[in-house]
Structure formats: structure tokens, C-alpha cells
Amino acid sequence: MPRFALLVEYDGAPFSGWQRQTDHPSVQAAIEAALAKLEPGEHTIAAAGRTDAGVHAMGQVAHCDLAKAWDPFRLSEALNYHLKPEPVAILACAAVEDDWHARFDAVERRYLFRLISRRAPLSFEAGQMWRINHGLDTKAMQAAADRLIGEHDFTTFRSTMCQAKSPIKTLDALDIETVERHDGTEYRFHVRARSFLHNQVRSFVGTLERVGAGAWTPDDVTAALVARDRAACGPVCPPHGLYLAGVTYPTNPFSG
After folding, report:
1. How confident is the model at residue 256 (pLDDT cuts 50, 70, 90)?
2. pLDDT tens for residues 24-58?
3. Contact between residue 169 and residue 200 where contact means Cβ atoms under 8 Å apart
4. Residues β-bridged to residue 57
5. Mean pLDDT over residues 126-130, rounded?
6. How many CB atoms lie within 10 A of CB 36?
7. Residues 181-234: tens digit of each pLDDT
């Protein structure tokens, strides 16, 4: 059966996450239903990352197996037609080898978290960013973020429901960008690693926000990391500011 890689974008607000669930809408189920319109029957797709409820994606990658050797462009166009009106889009499609795997072949995942400081509630971008009503010290947050780079036991920043076999991960980058806007200041957290623990990025951002607000110091973040205790973590920020920004493979399947 021909295998295809899909580059997927979605607004996570209406979904209970990526993974298919019996009684709740999911991104996976929406795409599988669209595939069933093209080739009747059951379809099971696999993704590079299982995003939680409310989390968005600009560069999720999944793969599917089909009976027909579709032209990739025609497949993406057909899927986008049948995905309407769901806020899910297939940005690109490519034929890949039969053993290519969206999850297991990935060598890096990149996340973006968007946080905005402004007094007024969000209207146009509600559900797309975490809004706070106080400013943040970007230098202090970056100094604290730097303490998290490298290989560590990230038990403190791991959900108690995390199913990963080990809490030891290597964080390659956690860079904080400040964007001045007409309505306030946006803080963008760019996070990069081969793989992540459940709630790891949201735990990082919630803790770093406390540093930016002056309630924590970079030394407090180091102490929390070393504690290897979930209770030592700062607040876990809400999901709606988080985006799966991209996934890297040894060879980009969409570059051809």
C-alpha cells in the first residue's frame, strides 16, 4: 500500500487533542474521516506528536497508507475539500517509503508558545495566546531558561500522567523572543528537542512566567530542576498558546 506523509496545520480549540477518542472530537479522527471519503473503509494515521486538547499546530506531520497511488497534490486537495469546515488543513503531501514513520523517523520537534501582556481581553486572537495583564522581564526569563538547556532529569517539569519510560531528555534550545505590538507585548518561547515529556513545554513556560514577573529567580528554576519533584514546578500554563511549530527528519519528505 502506498504511504504518504502529510504536513498538517490546525486550530486545536475545537478538539480534545490529536489522538482519536471515542466520544470527543480529535484531529486524527477528522483526517481519518476525510480519508474514508476518498477510500471507503477504516483508516489509521500516525503523527509525529500527540498534541493535547486546545494545542495548535503549524507543522504537525502524519503518515497514512492508501490503496491507490495518489498524486500527492491531488490527495492534499481532496483531503482539504473533505476536511471542511473543520479548522484543519493539509499544507503539503508527499509519497514516502513504505517503512517511513512520522513519529519514529523524526529527529527534532519544535514548539512555539505565545504569551501576550495586555490589559484588555483578546478578541481577534482569543484562544491563540495566553494573555496576562503584567509585563515580564525577558532577560531574567532567558537567564532561567538557559539553566534548562542540555540533558537533565526533567521529572519536575513532567506531568504525573506522562507515559514516557524515562524523565531524562535533552533540551536543545529555549529562546525567548519579544515582539512589541500596538496592543501590548508578545513573548514567544521557541523550544527545540528531539522529543518531549507530557506537559513539559507548558511547565517550562508557566515557571518562566513566574521568573519574568519577579516571583521566582533563575536560581529557583535550577533548584526546581534539581529537586526532580513535580511539586517543585511552577504553574502549568494553559494549552491555547502552544503550537507544534515543526518536525525535522533526516531527509525532508516535502522538499521534492
Report:
1. low
2. 999 999 999 999 999 999 999 999 999 999 999 99
3. yes
4. 10, 244
5. 96
6. 13
7. 999 999 999 999 999 999 999 999 999 999 999 999 999 999 999 999 999 999
Tell me the C-alpha to C-alpha distance, in Å, between residue 62 and each of 23, 105, 106: 22, 11, 11
Indicate whether this model's pTM tops 0.90: yes
DSSP 236: P
Reported confidence tier of residue 22, pLDDT bands at 50, 70, 90:
confident
Separation CA 57–CA 22 (nearest Å): 22
Above 70 in pLDDT, residue 108? yes
Q: Comparing C-alpha atoms, which of 131, 128, 145 is closest to residue 218?
A: 145
Compute how many other C-beta atoms are within 10 angstroms of the C-beta atom of residue 242: 27
CA distances from residue 91 to 13, 49, 66, 73, 75 in whole angstroms, order as listed: 19, 17, 19, 10, 11
Of the candidates 104, 29, 35, which has an alpha carbon nearest to the alpha carbon of residue 67?
Answer: 35
Active site residue 52: yes
Cα–Cα distance, 180 to 162 (Å, whole number): 36
Residues 144, 222: Cα–Cα separation, whole Å = 8
Name the active-site residue from 23, 52, 153, 172.
52
Helix H or strand E segment including 142 = helix 138-146
Q: 507548558: which residue's cell? A: 202
Count Cα neighbours of 87 within 13 Å in the Cβ-side half-sphere: 14
Query: Are the C-beta atoms of 66 and 72 separated by less than 8 Å?
Result: no
